[in-house]
Amino acid sequence: MALRTAFVDEHIARQTQRLTSEYYPHRRHWPARLFHHAPLENAVAILQAGFLRSRNDPFNRHPRDVAAPDVINTRVDAHDHVRLYFRPKTPTQYSIEGIRKLNECPYGEVTHAPFLVMFAFDARSVLCQPDVRFSDRNMQIGTTVSGNTEDYFGQIPFEKVFSEGNTGGDRSITDARSAEVLTSSPLSLRDCLREIYFRSEPERDTVLHMLGAQRETWAKMGHVSDALKVFQKRHTFVQEVTLTPEGVTFLLNPRHDLEKVKVAISITDAAGR
Fold first, then answer.
1. Is the pLDDT of residue 68 over 90?
2. Which of 48, 55, 207, 240 has a CA 20 to 30 Å removed from the CA of 62?
3. Residue 180 annotated to the active site
4. How far apart are CA 159 and CA 151, in angstroms?
5. Is 22 a catalytic residue?
6. What kind and span of H or E run contains 243?
7. Signal peptide: which range, if any (predicted)?
């Protein structure tokens, strides 16, 4: 059952107005968007294909799987759907983003995403699709039941979904921050992708370089901006790179705890040697 366009517009307007305040003002940009984060390899594959696909989609190249096995294998209910979040900086993203030391990923090294890219989709375009579903928490939680009606949507606790800061140990807030939107696979990027966000210019340049001939197709959508604050930035990533006749200078984003980071450098020439 599709949500009425007027219903979706009213939801976006109401939440945007509620979040337009001096406290975490960046949140006012969230309701008009839906979010999907992806590690570097997956992000490039998604852009090259022009589609975001479900986990079970046979055409999903999915070169890097950062899902925690003990979590993703708990339930398969959402595996046939493209999965988006109402907000960035979900609990999952908190656990995987950034270059980390060994054993710093709570769900194991397989979940480590040193280089993360954020896709922002137009909420109105997606939520008005005829087969869209949504949930009030993460679909991997055993008790989560998705819905597709305006009554169900109206009961999603968006004051918790869009909340920022400490939860005070309230598990319902943590769960709500992972509320999802489920659509059929594949989801065309040309139809509803608004922006692609990167943590730094070097990361943006890396993705565009890897896209090769498709670079210009997506370059205008790629942004390095904190306007929406879609990244945690608690761990290391390459923040700046400067090339001069004397050599290369690079700046790393400092860890949240200011601990030192071990660095190893490898150099490859144009011939790949």
1. no
2. 240
3. yes
4. 17
5. no
6. strand 238-244
7. none
